[in-house]
């Protein structure tokens, strides 16, 4: 059983581990520390470590992933599916050492097939697994306003809901882990394809002699309104391409989406076209810039 205190059937997780405290994982870990939860985390980036330790007294840096084996719950927030598998499954990964009946929660963006592999592996180790994908960006995550889309065993979700409510809001249950990851990938396919179309529209507005600030303001009153219009439209016209969600990660997510579609015998035509533009942006040296840098290649 989890190390726990039961108060009116509420389960309080006593010890939490975290792997991956970068742009997205860092805010989640810090929200737990701000709430007074005991969080042990593994990281190498000095800036990320100092920032996370600075928000409270209950955060603790560990020297290796294996040091998290005695946690009641372990979170990961990592960049690639193969990274998640390497840390948790392969080469004596952490799932081989976690306590029976402990909980593993992944908040990375991975494909449903990989999620299914992890779920089966965790089950063989008698460990509960939730896939909890994230809906927005680092700014929202830092404020604990990150929408969370969870999948996995319903009883495990219910048991961990109070912890999820600390790291983000609102928290939605979608069913299985494959549904949670599919939703995240589809969301990114729609959002990033929309961003490419928006960048194209801004180019056309500029060529038409329309004031770009007015263009964004008026577009919001039409069927062209979108989340990307409000979040990244101003960044494009201000030529602010500082990394909030990198072109590299966008390309990774769109590739996951196209591959997922193929496994469903579906051709994601618009996403494939958008992926070509982000691939071009990476090839032209914009991979570490924000995804709105796709504007630079839509000349």
The overall strand count is 10
Rg computed from alpha carbons, rounded to a whole number of angstroms: 20 Å
How many individual helices?
11
Average pLDDT value?
93
Task: Write structural notes for this entry.
- An 8-stranded mixed beta sheet has the order 5-4-3-6-7-8-9-10, sandwiched between helices.
- It is 48% helix and 15% strand.
- Helix 6 links the parallel strand 9 and strand 10 (171-175).
- It is an alpha/beta fold and 299 residues long.
- Helix 7 (177-207) packs across helix 10 and helix 10 (247-263) packs antiparallel against helix 11 (269-286).
- It has helices at residues 25-34, 46-53, 81-88, 112-124, 138-142, 154-167, 177-207, 212-219, 227-237, 247-263, 269-286; strands at residues 4-7, 10-13, 16-19, 39-42, 59-61, 73-76, 103-106, 128-134, 148-152, 171-175.
- It has 11 helices and 10 strands.
């Amino acid at each position: 059983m989890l190390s726990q205190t039961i108060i009116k059937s509420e389960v309080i997780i006593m010890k939490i581990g975290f792997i991956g405290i970068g742009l997205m994982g860092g805010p989640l870990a810090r929200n737990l520390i701000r709430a007074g939860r005991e969080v042990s985390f593994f990281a190498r980036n000095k800036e990320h470590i100092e920032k996370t330790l600075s928000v409270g007294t209950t955060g603790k840096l560990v020297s290796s992933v294996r040091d998290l084996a005695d946690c009641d719950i372990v979170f990961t927030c990592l960049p690639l599916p193969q990274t998640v598998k390497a840390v948790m499954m392969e080469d004596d990964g952490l799932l081989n050492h976690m306590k029976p009946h402990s909980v593993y929660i992944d908040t990375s963006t991975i494909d449903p097939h990989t999620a299914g592999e992890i779920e089966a592996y965790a089950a063989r180790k008698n460990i509960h697994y939730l896939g909890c994908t994230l809906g927005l960006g680092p700014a929202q995550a830092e404020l604990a306003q990150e929408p969370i889309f969870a999948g996995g065993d319903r009883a495990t979700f219910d048991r961990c809901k109070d912890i999820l409510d600390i790291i983000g809001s609102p928290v939605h249950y979608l069913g299985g882990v494959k549904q949670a990851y599919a939703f995240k990938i589809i969301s990114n396919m729609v959002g990033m394809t929309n961003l490419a179309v928006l960048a194209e529209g801004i180019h056309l507005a500029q060529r038409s002699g329309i004031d770009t600030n007015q263009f964004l303001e008026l577009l919001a009153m039409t069927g062209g309104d979108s989340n990307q219009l409000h979040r990244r439209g101003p960044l494009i016209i201000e030529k602010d391409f500082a990394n909030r969600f990198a072109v590299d990660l966008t390309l990774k997510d769109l590739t996951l989406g196209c591959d997922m579609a193929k496994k469903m015998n579906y051709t994601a035509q618009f996403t494939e076209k958008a992926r070509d533009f982000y691939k071009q942006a990476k090839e032209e040296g914009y991979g570490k810039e924000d995804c709105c840098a796709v504007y630079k290649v839509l000349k």
